[in-house]
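User: Here's a chain of 426 residues. Predict its fold as tokens.
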Amino acid sequence: MTESKMDSQRQNTSILYGSPDQKTFILDIPASIELAQLLSGAHAPSIERKLYSTTVKDPYPSPPEPKTDAARARVLARIPDSERVFLEAIDSFVKPAYEKIRKECGLSSNWCYHRYIPPEEEIAEEASREKRKLEPDVQDPAPVSNMGPPIILSTSSVNEFSSLSGLQGVEIRNPALQTANIRVKNASVDDFHTEEYTIPPKASFVLGTLSTPSSQQINKISVIPNLAETTKFNLILLDPPWPNRSVRRSSQYHTHTYLEMDSLVAIMQDIFLAHLDRENDKKAIVGIWTTNSAKSHQAAYSALDSANLQVTEEWIWLKVTENGEPVVPLDGLWRKPYEVLLIGTPKTETELKGRKPLKRLLVAVPDMHSRKPNLKELFEMLYFPTDDGTQTYTALEVFARNLTSGWYSCGNDVLRFNADQWWSEP
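Assistant: Prediction complete.
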């Protein structure tokens, strides 16, 4: 497929391939984020700005795998039983599903659209930003809540803010059908400059940290600053900051950035109980990204169960190169080329006990660090279809790293990939 034809298809969908049974998809991550900036059912005939991305032409370097059965057995013996069982169950689904899609698509096919590479200075700035980033997604004690009326953005002129602190903890809304622009003055030790952000239509967000259960009790505020508990959503999507020993050892992060499992479980439970809409005829859905640690998997199950939710689907994101090869070996012991999104729905009396969750395979070439596929298009296809494609549901994304049109987003990094520096000029 030529670059022009690929871009033409990119304007309409981020799904390069979908199996007839809707259990296997090939997604393009940059296109999914680009389309998420547009209103559902109102996709423009052309997307003027393209999201800067990276290429993944070859598999990642990885430690040598054990060469003998005895060496492999020794490594397996060091993996906790619960984690080994979890990974074996995922592997048993991913391997045949991947082989089937590879036979249908072939390694010579396009496994992603043409990608736009940022200037070298933007890559350097992102690396610098990562090193400077100290603000956690979750904080205890909680910051003082700025409870008050939301800030309504103008779409007819640029919305000026003297600093990011003017946005912290405040609900920001763009209720219009057009994009809005934010300009923020940013003073650092070395320089003074402005940063500009493009806010999608019908998008709302809170930039700031979430509150732990203990600080909620002390300060009598909700887990999400300025979000009233009466505000309900049909879909809640989370990418939690799971505990990570390598990150904890790094001096670049506060030690409380990555919370203990108990705190994360309590936070997720509070969000589900307060904000999931279960009182009408529409679907109520929760999605939780997990790591390949069985502990995160078990914690997500615990959070869902404590909120009277059950896991009904598992979406496995298989990471491949641009030629369709897994970025690390599928049968590798040191690293796995996938991440799992658990889908939870309210428990019902008619639900059969012991029923295994439906598994879907999402194949996508990885992108910039911390970017995941934007799943708006897929959720609307599978759970909220309409004849004209218009959005008929409400959605909340927690620990978001970019905004989505028609959705409410929160987290300390919620504006990251809506910064204009990540987008090519039209």
